From TrEMBL:
The chain crosses the membrane at residues 34-54, 74-96, 117-137, 149-175, 187-207, 240-258. Keywords: Cell membrane, Membrane, Transmembrane, Transmembrane helix, Transport. This is Transport permease protein. It comes from the Bacteria. It is a multi-pass membrane protein. GO terms for molecular function: ABC-type transporter activity. It is found in: Cell membrane. GO terms for biological process: lipopolysaccharide transport. GO terms for cellular component: plasma membrane. The keyword Transport applies. InterPro entries: ABC2_TM (IPR013525), ABC2_TM_bact-type (IPR047817).
């Protein structure tokens, strides 16, 4: 538990620096592009268009949720998926790729996952603004369940920090892990119900098995908030399971990180 508290303390202590580095990385990544940071929005929009034309027509524009069109249902899940996928893959390599910064600047390596999360927030927030605009254009009724967005947003950030800290540490120790993680994320795209409704297309026991993936909890949570009108308190056991998995990842990631971070350079 001591390691967890130390890691969390470092995030708060170095929060201003986390935001500064994240902002610098955003500008550096796209500085040689004519459209610059606009690509943070254009890339996901292009992918959304492709998935909608491929899967939207296959679903005949129906989401399987009463009162919700396929585009509304898909955006409610695919926008957080883009954010989650980008953070997990980039975050897993965050320590490995930025180890040179630590030698030049005095800050703990535990902040690397947080930098990755913050640097991807711009694209996520902008896509959510577009999603809200679509909901208002289509005349979607504002519901009290929309307030759940803040709960699921915090849950997503805590989960991402926990899993990314763990992945980033293991990726330094075992380089094959990152390659395997890339393949796993490709599979998770399809088995997490990002573009198709698990509940209407699979047997109940298969859905229950796939819901062991905590990412499904987050995606379904956002959809329940905006198109499903279902509260997280209606499935207390599932909520407890998600937080147990998240806290276990945080604990294991913190312990491993604190144990090996003084020797990361040796592994590289």
């Amino acid at each position: 538990m001591k390691q967890v508290l130390e890691v969390l303390k470092e995030q708060f202590k170095y929060a201003p620096m986390i935001f500064r580095i994240a902002r610098y990385e955003d500008k550096a990544t796209y500085q040689s592009h004519y459209l610059g940071l606009a690509w943070q929005i254009l890339n996901p929009l292009i992918q959304v268009a492709i998935y909608y034309f491929v899967f939207g027509f296959a679903m005949r524009g129906k989401s399987g949720v009463a009162g919700a069109s396929y585009i509304e249902w898909m955006l409610a899940g695919i926008i957080p998926w883009f954010f989650i996928s980008a953070v997990i893959l980039q975050g897993a390599n965050s320590i490995f790729n930025k180890i040179h910064l630590v030698s030049k600047m005095k800050f703990p390596m535990s902040v690397m996952p947080s930098i990755t999360i913050v640097s991807n927030l711009t694209s996520y927030i902008t896509m959510m603004v577009i999603f809200f605009g679509l909901l208002f254009i289509k005349g979607a009724p504002v519901s009290m369940y929309w307030a759940q967005f803040f709960y699921y947003f915090v849950a997503m950030l805590v989960f991402l920090f926990s899993i990314t800290l763990l992945n980033a540490t293991i990726s330094v120790l075992v380089r094959d892990y990152y390659v395997m993680l890339q393949s796993v994320m490709r599979v998770l795209f399809y088995v997490s119900g990002v573009v198709w409704n698990l509940n209407t297309m699979l047997p109940a026991w298969v859905v229950d098995l796939l819901k062991l993936n905590p990412i499904v909890y987050i995606l379904e949570g956002f959809r329940d908030s905006f198109v499903g009108h279902k509260g997280f308190w209606q499935e207390p056991s599932y909520t407890v399971y998600f937080w147990l998995i998240t806290l276990v990842c945080l604990y294991v990631g913190s312990v491993l990180h604190m144990k090996f971070r003084e020797r990361f350079v040796d592994y590289l």
